[in-house]
Amino acid sequence: NNHESSGVVHDVIIGIEPTMLAALVLSLGGALASMPDASTWNPTAEGASCTPPTPLATEGANILLIGDSISMGSSGYSLFVQNFLQTATNGTLAGSVQHGGGFGGGGQMASSANGAAKVAGCMGNATGTLKPKAWSVITYNAGLHDCDTREFVTPANYAENLKGVFATLKPAASAVFFVTTTPYDMPLVNGQPPLPAGINMSCVLERNEIARAVAAEIGDIFIEDLYGAVEEFCSAFPTDPLNSSFAHNYTTCAIQSTGLHFFTRAPFPSGQQYTGFSVASQVLRKVPEAEISNVTAGSSTTLLAEASSTVGSCGNPPAPLDAKLPNVLIIGDSISMPGSGYGPGVEVMMENPELQSTGAIASVQHSGGNGSNQAGPTTNGVDCVQSWVGVGNKWDVVTFNHGIHDCVPGGDGRPNGAIVPLAEYVANLKTIYGVLHDSLAPNGTILWVSTTPVSSAAETPWKGKGPAGWTGLGDCVTSYNAAAVQLLGPLPDVQIVDLHSAVTDVCGMQYDQCNLQKWSDVHFTTAGKQFCAVQVAAGIAPKLGPAWRRLLKETQM
């Protein structure tokens, strides 16, 4: 995923080339001008008002998701986001995740008409008494209903409605996102694209561009590009013919069920879960650090104490690969390994989407199997990577990281003061990559997960202990991350999950302590481990489209 931010608009995943998007809008936009304007608020219509929220949490972040059936509980992603951020962490990462108007039918906010009044009710400010920044993060979407011929809102009125919505939301939250309106599958009918609920796809594209422009005009409104996230996964599926006006857009997709919605069920992967990963990962990057609970405050862990004695052991080979799901392998040290890291969080979320009895999206294993899971430095990676991937296995996605252990003076049996030199680190990564490349399934992806940052407090035990020219553990991590990206970034089967950047988005570029991490330690709290798990899962999920296309063809589903 690309997490570049301009400070005004935050684009997460680019799923369609700008020139193609513009062409699509122009080619089919003419039909919009003749549609009637239904932007006048109908107080008896669904989505006419919004029930106030339940009391906000006093500990942990407060997150509010506002939207239509793509986000609401039974059909959308909101319950999954609640499960990822609140339930899984016992409220330490998010004390409360709510959907505007509730998770049921009352949460259907429909079009942007009367949007400012509706969101005021959703966030508990109908009377104007809500305290500033009472909410940590609020997300908002309207678009599908604005394009519905029964509720159609003209482009000009849509823009004005969004201005009112954003102006209403901004004082109430530390961060506000617009979630782009999602696409739908489009098998041509007599050579023409369908119009589910009377919605023309060109209208969706146009409304998303209007929302981006309004967000930039208002300022400090971030964009979660859910449209792009869906397109990235679904681009692996059949597309319309080149001579159609919707050339290259998908005609069917494993995560989308009814043309518009994402409530797929096993044996298909959960579309609600998939969209939840994308939204949750971006919401978390804007949660104020002070609102995250550090449940391990005051605890102390020696930097490499967690499973350090097992470095040098490859553990056990992986379990047999799953024949019915995409297979994901996580390679890493104590930041990802079971017990101390995020790996189990990724596994649980991807394998067990219990909500609505929806289907798993992938089978996940960690390097070392049920033996030692500690990947350690790249020197150990070179020795063990073939054991970790297993003989003859073909993985759909492999994530890997080495870095902290390479940077610790005297770590992992090296002489006092010795680190793995940068040139050797890069050479080792190249060797590890070669094995991973040969272990990928067709159209598989390797994800390099950047090494997480080191607080100034965690630096203390290592000050003055490094080799000549060594300026600290944090600086070493930063330079080794840069070298890894320089080596791996240009490779066609490698994508970067910048976990370092995700953590510093919350903790700051330079910090003494952070509630995502244990005090004076590089390891993560309960909230921090799940934070990392969501970021990594959101990086993995879009890369699973080719595997699901292959699996569904093999089973003729």
In angstroms, what is the radius of gyration?
24 Å
The main pleated sheet reads as: 5 strands, parallel
Topology pattern, helix = H, strand = E: HEHEHEHHEHEHHEHEHEHHEHHEHHH
Give the percentage of residues in beta strands. Answer: 5-15%
**Low-confidence regions:** 1-45, 297-302, 304-309
What is the arithmetic mean of pLDDT?
86
Structural class: alpha/beta
Overall shape = globular
Sheet with most strands: strand arrangement: 2-1-3-4-5
Approximate helicity band: 25-40%
State the separation between the terminal residues, measured CA to CA.
29 Å
* Separate helix tally: 17
Number of E-type strands:
10
Draw up the topology in text.
Blueprint: H1 18-28, E1 61-66, H2 78-85, E2 94-99, H3 115-122, E3 135-140, H4 144-147, H5 155-169, E4 173-179, H6 201-218, E5 221-224, H7 226-234, H8 271-284, E6 327-331, H9 343-351, E7 363-366, H10 378-389, E8 395-400, H11 404-407, H12 422-438, E9 440-449, H13 456-459, H14 473-488, E10 494-497, H15 499-507, H16 526-540, H17 545-554
Parallel strand pairs: 1-2, 1-3, 3-4, 4-5, 6-7, 6-8, 8-9, 9-10
Helix pairs in contact: 1-6, 2-8, 3-5, 5-6, 8-16, 9-16, 10-12, 12-14
